[in-house]
Amino acid sequence: MERVIEELKELGIIRREVVEKALKEVPRAEFLPEEVRQYAHLDTPIPIGYDQTTSAIHMVSMLCEETELEEGDEVLEIGTGSGYMACVYSKITKKEVFTIEIIPELAKFAKKNLRKLGMDAFIHVINADATFSLPFRNDFDVIIVTACSKDIPKEYIEKLKDRGRLIMPVGAYKFSQDLILIKKIGKKQEMKKITEVAFVPLRGIGRIYND
Ligand code: SAH
Asked: What pTM value is reported for the model?
């Protein structure tokens, strides 16, 4: 992990000490199924079962850096998966994190992983379909969507407070989407394409339906 972090710093993907520190603090192996634990230090997406993957280390770093995630931020994550990324955000923000997962078994898996590390009191794993039901709050500083959709759901932007940031993979192609960052400024939004990415699709019964 140390070597990957050094490389990501050299590449300018990790820019701040808070991100470096959080990545060093959270043991990625503890969030992986036993048969793939040996790959925890590799900077690649890793399968976590149910056809889902946990993102590569550079992607986790990029999501934290591009949203300028910092202490005090209130975060909503869509797509809990293993719970690893939610744990990293929480180390940076020093706050609770809310995270939604549609697959009941993965929600359970994430809760178990977080409990092992004593992080379950800080990270609220909600087993729900985030294309259909979202928290009754619209004061999040940062929303991180870790599954791709054809367009940016305005329902997600509505959940942000003023100057809040939303980051998500957007696109119709299975193996390539644009990672889009949106900043909410008053009634307007600033939009920026960060890079091309490959995420699993957001599925569900809501308007934000994908496949
Ligand atoms: N952030 C994760 C990796 C996410 S993979 C980690 O730290 O490991 C994307 C996840 O989004 C998958 O677990 C998938 O089941 C979930 N997902 C897909 N559609 C969803 C929806 N409509 N609502 C909530 N979660 C969803």
From this structure: 0.96
